[in-house]
Structure formats: C-alpha cells, structure tokens
Amino acid sequence: MRRVESIQDEMNGTVTYELGNGRFVTLDARAVREYGAAEILRHMGHEFSTERVKVMQRGHYVGTVPGDFDPLNIQSRTFLYDPRPGDFRRDGDIWIVADMLGPGDLEAIPRFEREGRDAG
Questions:
Q1: What is the pLDDT of residues 22-50, one digit of tens each?
Q2: Do 109 and 57 belong together in one domain?
Q3: Would you say 86 and 96 are in contact if contact means Cβ atoms under 8 Å apart?
Q4: Full-prediction pTM beyond 0.85?
Q5: What CA–CA distance (Å, rounded) separates 52 from 113?
Q6: Coil, helix or strand for 72?
Q7: 2-37 as b/e, with b when 16 or more CB fall inside 10 Å?
Q8: Based on the structure, what is the number of domains in the chain?
C-alpha cells in the first residue's frame, strides 16, 4: 500500500492509495485520520504485507514501522510530539524521516521499533 499524493486529493479531502497490480482506491481523508487507511481497507477485504518497512533519517537506519504504516494516521503517545505534514516521506521501500524529528518524537509513534544500526 502506497499513498499517491495529489493536489486533486487535497482539494477534495480525499486520499488515494496504490494497492498493487494496477489497483487504486480513494478514501475520505477524515476517515483515514480517524481509523487509518489499513483498517478501512481491511474492512473492505484487502490484505497487506506483514513485513516491516525501514525508517531512515539523515542517511542512517533508525528503525522500522509496520507495512501498513501511514503518517496521516499517527496517534502520538505523548503531547510533546504533534505529527506534521512532511515528517515522513516515502521513497521506494523506505520511509524518510524529517531531520528535525528527535528520538523522542520517533518513540512517540505507535508501532515504531528503534534499531541502532547505521544504514551506511
């Protein structure tokens, strides 16, 4: 599952996802923020890979998130981190984290698992 960013979606309050095999689905952005795209799509009968996806920051491997991770649906575990657009960017098979996020911000993300290894 990969989110397809578009100005049209932003204007319509929708979010489009590529499901693979040429399939796309468009969902209401408010529902995605509240329930998560993966949960909505599971309810519709779609299944997702259980493999975790690498998270990189400043060229270093910092951890992993589940394959169904979507930054639009982050429910921070602390009031100290409020998710913002641009905190995460998908680049192929990895998530790139904004340089300004600190270790505590990442730890506040449910289902994020820290890895201490260097990517390089």
A1: 889 999 999 998 888 888 988 988 876 66
A2: yes
A3: no
A4: no
A5: 9
A6: helix
A7: ebeeeeebeeeebbbbeeeeeeeeebebeebbeebb
A8: 2
